Amino acid sequence: MKITIVAGSNQKLATSTKLGQYIQHLIQQEGHQVKLIDLYQSPLPFYSPDDAHGGHEALETYKHALHEAEGIVLATPEYHSGISGVLKNALDHISQDYFHNKAVLSVSSAGGAIAVSSLTQLQTIVRNLHGINCPEWLSIGGDQRKSFQADVAHSDIHPDLDKRVRRVVSSFLDLTKQLSVNS
After folding, report:
1. What does the alpha-carbon distance between residue 116 and residue 18 come to, in Å, rounded to a whole number?
2. Where are the domains of the chain?
3. Contact 50, 35 (CB under 8 A)
4. Terminal CA-CA length for the chain
5. Residue-by-residue pLDDT tens, the chain, 183 positions
6. pTM for this structure?
7. CATH number for the domain running over 2-182
């Protein structure tokens, strides 16, 4: 299967991006193709309905990766009880054609204990784009974020957190497979 992960932070060492990279690692271990779009590394132009930004390399790569994907992971930090502005901007650039009947996993990292508001917001956006929300989501916060700092190896992720991430990713892959077989 082809999976696209969109890391929606504009911070170089964002824990949400590191979590997205770990999810990429896990999915690749299962033998699937994964494209990670890091919006910090490949920023997109500001969305405007008056300008399609045709030919913008990062935007074209992003759209192509979403179009080709059978499943999508959206990773965001939680800012003021919502998703990041760069991820919202990226989602504004696309239409229902990119998400229609595709499994989508929402992932968030918060400075506080949990990031429910951003995950709820992501799931609403996914529904409006006609994607299929994975029934589970991932939220890391507080001390859990230490497992996704820049200098932490995958083997050093807290075992309980690792078990949860693996379970949710497995559930997402099962849903993605089921939906791709039925389409």
Report:
1. 19
2. 2-182
3. no
4. 13
5. 999 999 999 999 899 999 999 999 999 999 999 999 999 999 999 999 888 778 899 999 999 999 999 999 999 998 888 899 999 999 999 999 999 999 999 999 876 666 788 999 999 999 999 999 999 999 988 888 888 888 888 899 999 999 999 999 999 999 999 998 776
6. 0.95
7. 3.40.50.360
